[in-house]
Design a protein that fits this description.
- The protein is of the alpha+beta class.
- The strands form 2 sheets. A 7-stranded antiparallel sheet has the order 1-4-5-6-9-8-7, with no helix packed on it. Strands 2-3 form a two-stranded antiparallel ribbon.
- A hairpin with a 5-residue loop joins β4 and β5.
- It is flat.
- The termini are far apart.
Length: about 160
């Protein structure tokens, strides 16, 4: 009888109905994950392909940050703040915003700042802007990969031959 009680008491999973965590907070429930701003202003692409260049160098499958250069001629793949590859831009579309739209955005920021002060919550406009960032890499089947890059105002496309 005492051995049965001892084995039950030594196994917390049999006693507690929920799994135990050292900090008492479930993963993803901490304020660090819930309210933290994104660490980058660029979209992140997940590539399942090994990418090669003409010299035989390769980039392994993984997660890469995609950024457009200032002169709008190259899309660069960045990992750990190191540029690993540059892809020439083949097609680019830029959406122009007028002064009225810019003023509307500034008014929305002021309005959200007042709400934040009143409700003691974080401003979500940065998170909404991050959600509008997209980057994808797909296999065309014709001997190249297509790298699509999209932000709120810019769409760019580059081709990576294989």
């Amino acid at each position: 009888m005492f051995e049965l009680i001892a084995t039950v008491l030594n196994d917390p999973e049999k006693i507690f109905p929920y799994p135990t965590y050292p900090s008492g907070v479930l993963e993803g429930d901490s304020t660090l994950y819930k309210f933290a701003y994104p660490s980058t202003d660029n979209p992140v692409v997940r590539t399942a392909f090994t990418l090669y260049d003409n010299d035989g160098n390769s980039i392994a499958p993984g997660f890469y940050e995609v950024a457009l250069t200032n002169d709008r001629k190259f899309l660069v793949l960045i990992q750990s703040r190191k540029i690993l590859a540059s892809v020439p831009v083949v097609k680019i579309e830029e959406k122009q915003i007028d002064e009225y739209q810019q003023n509307e955005k500034e008014l929305e920021k002021v309005k959200n700042a007042k709400k934040e002060k009143r409700n003691n919550k974080k401003d979500t406009t940065e998170l909404k802007q991050q959600a509008r960032l997209k980057a994808t890499i797909t296999d065309s089947g014709d001997g190249y990969f297509i790298l699509d890059y999209q932000t709120e105002f810019i769409k760019a496309k580059g081709y990576i031959p294989y």
